[in-house]
Amino acid sequence: MTDSALRLIPGRRLLTAEDLDIGFEATVHATHASNAPDAPRLSSADPLLAKVKHLLSSFGGVIFSGPPGTGKTYVAAQIAEAIAGDQGRVQYVQFHASYQYDEFMEGFVPTASGFVRRDGAFLKMCRRAQADPDNTYVLVVDELSRADAARVFGEALTYVERSKRGLEVTLASGNPLTVPNNLEILATMNPVDRGVDEVDAAFERRFAKIKMDPDRNVLGRVLENSGLEEQVRNRVMGWFSMVNKFARDNPSAAIGHAYFVNVDGIDAMRDVWEHQLQFAVDRAFRLDPQNRQSVETGWKNLFIDVPGGWDGKQSASAADPPEKDAD
Fold this sequence. Notes:
CATH superfamily of the largest domain: P-loop containing nucleotide triphosphate hydrolases
Number of helices: 13
Number of strands: 9
Strand content: 5-15%
Largest sheet: 5 strands, parallel
CATH class of the largest domain: Alpha Beta
Helix content: 25-40%
Oligomer: single chain
Shape: elongated
Structural class: alpha/beta
CATH topology of the largest domain: Rossmann fold
């Protein structure tokens, strides 16, 4: 039955996603902003949480910088909620190539009769934090380097500094802005993204950075918790170490441990290669076919004695001969 027909039934009302609090407006503030929304919250004694709190006392914000799959967004979301103490005091914004000042600070939006000025995400959070000085608010900017960050922040860029918090600045519209002390800013960034030089130039004095590198120890815990048998787990960790050694000279080759979060068996390993890893490898080694072949061969060798081979279609003998573990 169509929406129009449903509306004609007496006593019946068609509910939208917003009516049910599951639409865009609800998820802006309520989402966990990670690929593991049911993960346990951070302990107050977590060392990374303590480090971020320390840095926020001196810097305008903290940027988690690292290649894809290193858990930057997950960690930022967990720390944001731990600092704010309430999910409702955290807001997530994702930068992209067309993200602009009018979306982040303030701008004009079209209406049926013309245009009206609207507060952007940052301005809204400043207002909320000012109205509630006894609580901490956190703005999480995902993919910081995808936009021209200095242009997006505009006049506010200088005033996120700790030494300038509480000072009033006039926006392009003539309206005043004050960045309150109880508003914290966390961001994530891939250092090999285009535009990162501009981000560094504008933010290096105002924001602290924390490196988020592929971590073999974290991978080991992820695979152990997933129930992957020890022999296969050790092979995966050996391949992980091998491919990330290439990243020393080719940063795009880095493979993060978060790629393996859902790998709980042989079929899941085949899936993660077929639908994710092979594309990351192709992109990183498109100008280096020799090392690309080494990485692919190393992956196939993980399945040397597994029925069906690396793609589930071969006999074990069809796989390439085993190579010595990269470690």
